[in-house]
């Protein structure tokens, strides 16, 4: 899991040495470990004949956050950014982090209070077995105004216990006893590997499960019925993928959903008509890669940082208002880029026909294939072999 922090501002701070606040990056993965980097604090460590100077960034914080073999997700939360200790020496830094792991718990951390002995931030709350009875495989966090007149932070998780849970950050942060979700779905009959809330003003939630189903739920209605008896079920896709593991809403088009699984095709759907995909994207998985066993989640690229995650009517940094989609592929040493065109939905000749593959960025030698991907403007952070993370920028960007 990788994520850049943004505070919805492109402005730099004089107190922060003129640095942009969006260059904080969190990574979480194996052995329950989390690391936090300020990617501006980099040092040139070596130069080669065929590359530019390469820089290395030490983590500002690194700690074991969960028991178990891995962490599913780590997400920055908006909040007070002024109470920062010497450990994070910047007034423009994240102060809250939420994590979910294989131990079945969700943890809320205060990054502004760090232990001098363990070097771990203060743990504000940890959920128990009443939340999920088995490991958590995915998490999404979004500020939503659906259930109240004002916005509240919603936390959605999917688990090996086959359930989906939603809670508000307020209920999680203020609970002094066992934390129970405000909404739960037991629609799936296998591990839930992906969840994604649609937008701040929508009650739609997409999920993907090892049972072979991608489902759309309305979290305003009761989700406790199993299978098709769940009253929260809006629609579903059956057998769209071999063990679907990813669902991503297009931030530029409220009707578009992208899915992926353990097969070589990424599919794009109009959720108003799920009879067939409007686009099938191929080319990111080499033909010799064999049976697909690794997860590569597609990620949208090109968002203007002020608009990212703000609404489903986001602006794009390119004057050509077409989103791009990035993904790795099993056995591939490239990050593949697709340009998304939806002239099947909007009868507009200015929209391009979707191409098989728009571009590919080759990873440096010895990196292997890409893992998690996070986007920060033109920068793309990619997890590679040996737990390393590299940050890439396109050599040419369409304006």
Automatic annotation (TrEMBL):
Matching PROSITE patterns: WD_REPEATS_1, WD_REPEATS_2
Record keyword Coiled coil present: no
SUPFAM superfamilies: WD40 repeat-like
Keywords: Repeat, WD repeat
WD repeats mapped onto the chain: 77-119
Pfam family, one: WD40
Region (Disordered) residue spans: 1-21
Listed name of the protein: Peroxin-7
Annotated organism of origin: Pseudo-nitzschia australis
Classification of source organism: Eukaryota, Sar, Stramenopiles, Ochrophyta, Bacillariophyta
């Amino acid at each position: 899991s990788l994520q850049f922090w943004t505070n919805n501002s492109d402005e730099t701070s004089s107190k922060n040495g003129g640095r942009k606040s969006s260059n904080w990056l969190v990574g979480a993965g194996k052995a329950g470990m989390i690391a936090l980097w300020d990617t501006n604090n980099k040092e040139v460590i070596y130069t080669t004949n065929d590359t530019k100077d390469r820089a290395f960034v030490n983590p500002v914080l690194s700690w074991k956050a969960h028991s178990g073999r891995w962490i599913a997700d780590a997400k920055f939360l908006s909040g007070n950014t002024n109470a920062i200790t010497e450990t994070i020496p910047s007034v423009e830094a994240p102060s809250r982090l939420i994590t979910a792991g294989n131990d079945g718990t969700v943890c809320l951390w205060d990054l502004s209070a760090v232990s001098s002995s363990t070097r771990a931030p203060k743990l504000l709350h940890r959920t128990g077995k009443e939340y999920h009875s088995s490991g958590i495989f995915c998490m999404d966090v979004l500020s939503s105004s659906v259930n109240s007149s004002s916005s509240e932070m919603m936390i959605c998780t999917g688990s090996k216990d086959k359930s989906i849970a939603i809670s508000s950050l307020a209920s999680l942060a203020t609970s002094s006893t066992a934390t129970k979700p405000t909404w739960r779905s037991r629609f799936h009959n296998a591990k839930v590997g992906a969840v994604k809330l649609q937008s701040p003003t929508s009650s739609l939630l997409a999920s993907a499960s090892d049972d072979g189903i991608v489902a759309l739920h309305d979290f305003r209605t009761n989700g406790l019925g199993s299978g098709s008896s769940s009253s929260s079920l809006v629609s579903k896709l059956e057998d769209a993928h071999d063990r679907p593991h990813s669902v991503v809403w297009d931030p530029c088009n409220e009707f578009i959903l992208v899915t992926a699984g353990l097969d070589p095709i990424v599919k794009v759907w109009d959720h108003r008509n799920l009879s067939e995909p409007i686009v099938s994207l191929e080319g990111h998985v080499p033909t010799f890669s064999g049976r697909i066993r690794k997860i590569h989640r597609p990620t949208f690229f090109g968002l203007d940082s002020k608009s990212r995650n703000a609404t489903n009517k986001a602006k794009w940094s390119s004057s050509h208002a077409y989103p791009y989609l990035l993904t790795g592929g099993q056995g591939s040493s490239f990050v593949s880029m697709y340009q998304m065109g939806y002239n099947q939905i909007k009868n507009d000749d200015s929209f391009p026909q979707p191409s098989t593959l728009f571009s590919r960025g080759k990873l440096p030698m010895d990196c292997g294939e890409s893992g998690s991907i996070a986007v920060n403007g033109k920068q793309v952070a990619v997890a590679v072999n040996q737990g390393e993370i590299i940050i890439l920028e396109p050599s040419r960007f369409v304006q």
